[in-house]
Amino acid sequence: MVTPTDGVGEMLLDPDAIRAEVTRLGAQITADYAGKKPHLVGVLKGAAVFVADLIRAIDLPASLDFISIVPYAEASRSGVVRIRKDLDDPIEGKDVIVVEGVCASGLSLSYLLRNFETRQPASIRVCALLVKQRTRPVEIKLDYVGREIADAFVVGYGLDAGERHRNLPYIARLP
Q: Please, what is the angle between helix 15-32 and helix 48-57, to 10°?
């Protein structure tokens, strides 16, 4: 029988560490957006679990939407970022926080930020649970960062490898 942990290597963040980062990020966003209503945009599928926990850690009225883009591996091979599922609602005049599970090259995120700027939000910031330590071909300003990690492929807590391991309650490096 195959289990969700088959083939998973070193654990990088256990459930308690993840919870602590989400709580810290939620408190920081709550303080920064006092008196405002942040609009979170989760980047599917990798950020789904993180954004669900993050919005509950924000002590403000907040709204939520999702966008889906071509998977990272496919986009990095072709160099083309495509939107698969666009936002359900306009972001014009909203204080948008783009929520990513992991930021690696920054190419997809750069594309999304340029795209969102044309939609005239009141403000736009980025929150990433994980940021890989690497040189990026584009400069990305990350406003809220959970943890920096080595440039390795990671799974768990919504992140996957071939649609496997998303359901792990921790984040691990693939061997």
A: 50
